[in-house]
């Protein structure tokens, strides 16, 4: 006949993964302190590359809107210009959580501005493809003075 003590050990021995030993905490182990500077730098790189995540979607939207001047294509161009300008204007608040005296955020900020300028470049290309940018000589005829006509005999 099984006593209560042997019954408990029989039940606990049948549990998979149960060892029956008490877990003791290690007193002498040093807790690893996370390197907050490296984490901040990594998160700053993520923030710097954030504008590139919207480029494929916006480029496809501008491509699908066609080359004619319509309200939809004009809204897309406006957003592709206005959002990067707002992003560049708010660069200090974007990178404020990652500031530290242990590291510099200059490379991340430069990359952020370059990505925003690339978005503006896509918008300018769309304006050029719609014919809104004055790039041809015929666009400047209103300010061009005609040469005087000489009559020769």
TrEMBL record:
Entry superkingdom: Eukaryota
One Gene Ontology cellular component: endoplasmic reticulum membrane
Transmembrane regions listed in the UniProt entry: 62-85, 105-125
Chief location bin: endoplasmic reticulum
Keyword tags: Endoplasmic reticulum, Membrane, Transmembrane, Transmembrane helix
Pfam families reported for this sequence: EMC4
Cell compartment(s), UniProt: Endoplasmic reticulum membrane
Membrane topology of the entry: Multi-pass membrane protein
Entries under InterPro entries matching the protein: TMEM85/Emc4
PANTHER family: ER MEMBRANE PROTEIN COMPLEX SUBUNIT 4
Homology family: Belongs to the EMC4 family.
Protein name per its UniProtKB record: ER membrane protein complex subunit 4
Source organism of the structure: Malassezia cuniculi
């Amino acid at each position: 006949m099984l006593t209560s003590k042997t019954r408990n050990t029989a039940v606990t021995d049948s549990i998979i993964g149960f060892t029956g030993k008490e877990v003791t905490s290690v007193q002498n182990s040093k807790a690893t302190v996370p390197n907050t500077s490296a984490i901040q730098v990594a998160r700053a790189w993520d923030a710097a590359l954030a504008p590139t995540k919207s480029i494929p979607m916006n480029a496809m939207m501008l491509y699908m809107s066609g080359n004619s001047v319509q309200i939809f294509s004009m809204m897309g161009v406006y957003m592709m210009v206005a959002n990067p300008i707002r992003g560049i204007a708010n660069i200090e608040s974007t990178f404020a959580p990652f500031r530290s005296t242990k590291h510099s955020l200059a490379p991340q900020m430069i990359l952020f501005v370059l990505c925003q300028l690339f978005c503006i470049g896509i918008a300018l290309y769309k304006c050029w493809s719609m014919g809104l940018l004055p790039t041809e000589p015929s666009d400047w005829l209103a300010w061009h003075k005609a040469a005087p006509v000489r009559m020769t005999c």
